[in-house]
Amino acid sequence: MKRKFKIQASYIIHVICGLVLFLQIGCQEQAKITQEALPEIKFEELVYDFGEVGPSAKQTGEFKFTNAGEGLLKITKVGKCCGVVTGLDKMEYAPGESGALKVEWNSGPLESTMKRELVVHSNDQTNPQTTLTITAKTVLKVA
Asked: In this structure, are residues 105 and 114 in contact, taking their beta carbons and an 8 Å threshold?
């Protein structure tokens, strides 16, 4: 009877060790699945300063960016503000691919200082909303 118990105990220990190893392998495989390739949007500059501009004139500029991540970057929306027009050539960028957000703004007829913020929404999980700023100073006579 003692021998039969030793065989059963040994068998149970082997089964438990096998289950532990099986679960560990399963967890490692699950970790590989959840580590999908993620995009990362990187702007060269977050502020675009038009400097001193003349009155009642169209101003254009751009914010250059790169998808520095491993996954497909999808820009879902660009929030605009107060007379600023924006444009993108496309909304999806492959890893390593660069693009530019074009901005257009018309200066007013009077001297003033302008500051506007744009919010770029994307599928970058660490930075889903990037705030960009444009500034300018309208002067009646540009030096």
From this structure: yes
Q: What is the pTM of this model?
A: 0.73
Tell me which of 60 and 141 has the higher pLDDT: 60
- Name 138's Cβ contacts closer than 8 Å, sequence gap at least 6: 52, 53, 54, 55, 107, 108, 110, 111, 112, 113, 114
| Alpha-carbon 31 to chain mean position | 23
**Are the C-beta atoms of 86 and 80 separated by less than 8 Å?**
yes
Best CA proximity match to 47, nearest among 103, 85, 128? 103
Read off the pLDDT of residues 56-77 as tens digits, 9 standing for 90 and up. Answer: 999 999 999 999 999 999 999 9
Residue 138's nearest CA partner among 53, 61, 74 is: 53
